[in-house]
Amino acid sequence: MRSLLVAASALTVLAACTDDTILQAKPDPRIVSVTGEATVTAVPDIAMLDFSVSTRAVTSADAFSDASEKMNGVIDALKAQGVEDRDLQTDQIGMNPIYAQNDRGRQDRTRIVAYEAYQSLTVRLRDIDNAGPVIDAAVQAGANGLNSFRMTIDDSKALQDEARVAAVKDAMTKAKAMAEAAGAQLGPVMTLSERGGSRAPQMMQARSMAREADMAGPALQAGEQTVTMSVSATFKLQ
Fold it and tell me: Which of 47, 49, 51 is CA-nearest to residue 201?
């Protein structure tokens, strides 16, 4: 009897509802999705250099000592050019055996005839205009390798923030134009996400440097560095 009463109540509720009430579903809002992108440029204000020294000697101790003495001279020369201790960092220290060659010109790994020691130093140069004299001073002091040279922005976060804001504005401009073309008005933003960005530092190819007393420092051009940011946005149409 109880089951019959429940069923009858349910039928009464359904009968009280119109067909529109039963079948009507909440319509999805009209939206427009766009991608915004922006690129900003700035002149690099620092340079990152990686100097190295390598020496050979009959004993490993002499090779290591010679390399250390040359690197200390390079460090002193860089400091004399105004580079601070906080901008100098030892990168690598290593030692390799030099093997004798047999009659066929191949290495005889049973006979070590010398040792080669090497050390590398990463330098943050805050005055790019002084890059030429700094490189020249390092070479004169004993550096025989410039393994990398890169120009970049010291505070890249501010540049990224600027590009990010511009990318959002670009997305809003595109969405507004599309909405007006469709005969609608642009409503509030519903979703907004960052798609990532890219940065293009200035690079110079690594090379070896000859120790020549009259070697002139290279002429360097800082150029510009670009930062690109991209965002995805969804807006409601009204």
Answer: 47
- Cα 232 to Cα 6, 65, 195, distances in angstroms: 52, 58, 7
| All residues at 6 or more sequence positions from 127 whose CB lies less than 8 Å from its CB, including other chains | 82
The predicted-structure confidence for 109-122, as pLDDT tens digits, reads as follows 889 999 999 999 99
What are the pLDDT digits (tens) for 157-180?
Answer: 889 999 999 999 999 999 999 999
Q: How far apart are CA 74 and CA 78, in angstroms?
A: 6
> Does the global pTM surpass 0.85?
no
Contacts for 178 with CB less than 8 Å, ≥ 6 apart: 32, 34
- For 138, half-sphere exposure in the C-beta direction (CA atoms, 13 angstrom radius) is 31
Domain 46-152 classification at class level = alpha beta
Specify the CATH number for 26-44+154-201+224-238; select among 3.90.226.10, 3.30.110.170, 3.40.462.20, 3.90.550.10.
3.30.110.170
